[in-house]
Amino acid sequence: MIVPEPGQKIEIQSYKHNGQLHRVWDRTTVLKANRNVLIGGNDRAMVTESDGRTWITREPAICYFHAKYWFNVIGMIRTGGVYYYCNIGSPFVFDEEALKYIDYDLDIKVYPDMTFALLDEDEYELHKRQMNYPKVLDSILRNNVEILERWIRQRKGPFAPEFIDQWYERYLTYLT
């Protein structure tokens, strides 16, 4: 796998299990990257949905992707604190074109007080039937929901108190 350089601007592409492009973020600045982890930052990124609609993100965000875990974490920096949006999805890959992963619908929203909620279980069940997710995949995804919830409770990785602040400070150095 190619590893992008810090400061490089990359595109992020999410797909569905059937290979259909789901959503594209036009630019994220790489802050750290190796074979296992990519941390990026963006602000006011243009997002293009699979139907062609576009929208712009409203706040700065720090993105955490892992090549071994089936989730990624977006820490959104808002005036009321950091809100996290966690996507249950395949481990990321990076090629010349973009960072890519498969989105498996289940999401966890984490509030500044670190309470959290599992979202979109109905959408997950629908797509699981429509796209015939194998039982082993369902097991992997459910297991990774548990791992992610444990990370949140333990304030591990991107949920550590200083994580977002430190990486956001690094992101700001690339804006000048």
From TrEMBL:
Enzyme Commission numbers on file: 3.6.1.15, 3.6.1.6
Binding positions for Mg(2+) 2 per the UniProt entry: D105, D107, D120, E123
Pfam families: DUF402
GO molecular function: magnesium ion binding; nucleoside diphosphate phosphatase activity; ribonucleoside triphosphate phosphatase activity
Keyword annotations from UniProtKB, A to Z: Hydrolase, Magnesium, Metal-binding
Domain DUF402: from-to ranges: 18-156
Enzyme class, first EC level, given as a word: hydrolase
Active site residues of this protein: R23
Binding site for Mg(2+) 1: N87, D103, D107
Bilayer-spanning residue ranges: none
Cofactor(s) listed in the protein's UniProt record: Mg(2+)
UniProt catalytic activity: a ribonucleoside 5'-triphosphate + H2O = a ribonucleoside 5'-diphosphate + phosphate + H(+); a ribonucleoside 5'-diphosphate + H2O = a ribonucleoside 5'-phosphate + phosphate + H(+)
InterPro entries associated with the record: DUF402 (IPR007295), FomD-like_sf (IPR035930), Ntdp-like (IPR050212), SA1684 (IPR016882)
Top-rank taxon, per record: Bacteria
Family according to the record: Belongs to the Ntdp family.
Function statement: Has nucleoside phosphatase activity towards nucleoside triphosphates and nucleoside diphosphates.
Protein known as: Nucleoside triphosphate/diphosphate phosphatase
Taxonomic source organism: Salirhabdus euzebyi
